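Discussion board: Methods & Data

I've been asked by a reviewer to show the raw model output for two of the constructs in my manuscript, not just the figures. I'm not sure how much to include, so I'm pasting the format here to get opinions. Each protein appears as its amino acid sequence followed by a line of discrete structure tokens. Is this the kind of thing reviewers expect to see in a supplement, or should I convert it first? Here is construct A:
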Amino acid sequence: MSIDWASLALVTAVTVLGTAFIMVICSWAARMLDEVHIKRSNHEVKGLHAAELSAGVLLFLAGLIVLYGLWLIIPYFH
């Protein structure tokens, strides 16, 4: 029995980079929503809708990535 170390390293790299990418997307969306909250509390209205829409798109993208990962893991869906 032998271990394919290159494949193991590839799986590790994709997992770490994929997780970091999802965390960056979610953090960026949370930052946008926090700025929207701050602007609303200061009664500023410029750019609120665009920031909310962008944050929603980023969270939707993160959700799609997670669902794709689940689709890859669960053999019932193939």
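Construct B, same format:
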Amino acid sequence: MIGRIAGRIEVRGPDHVLIDVRGVGYIVFVSDRTLAGLPGPGEATALFTDLIVREDLLQLYGFSTLVEKEWFRLLMSVQGVGAKAALAILGALGADGVSRAIALGDWNAIKAAKGIGPKTGQRVVNELKDKAPMVMAMAGQSAAGADPLIEDAPAHAGAAPGARAPAPAPQAAAQSEALSALANLGYAPGEAASAVATALNASPELDTPGLIRAALKLLAPRG
């Protein structure tokens, strides 16, 4: 299994890049969002990868973060969602956007991706809602101790030695810590994830204490 590739971009296509790794070129398919964040030809880069093996085909898919890769694999576990559809959803929403949409049960956000209809959007939310807290927590762990993706990428002309992938959003750590705190208070993972996602949608700048307070307000019984 090829889990990560680091090298120099030779070609950028509409849905893929060709990465030269010590003289061997790998075609890696990526989402629109990931492609937009990659450097130009001749520059160093690295991607987490997932290799899909079929009878007549081997295709490599690339992701800027492990969270994006995890959502790709989970999305593909839903009936009717193949690799192309999973990349379309990630390209439209990003990994954090997918986490929030599924935690909130917002299938309209999912169906906004190219080629995704209402029934598929609903199926994605229904089948993966219980997985959202796990992936949201994973995002926080990545933010707290992320390894640099491409510090050991081969140095080539035009490639900056020691180049690093963009740092994860700081909200990811607060999100993970808030989920953990709510779990310790006895809230179910699904309702905790929904409350955290709602609070972040309303106020993306919240730190951990503020996020916990906002989520608790949403979870408080109304009467």
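Answer (T.O., handling editor elsewhere):
This is acceptable in a supplement if you add a one-line summary per construct. For B, something like: Residues 71 and 95 are 7 Å apart (CA to CA).
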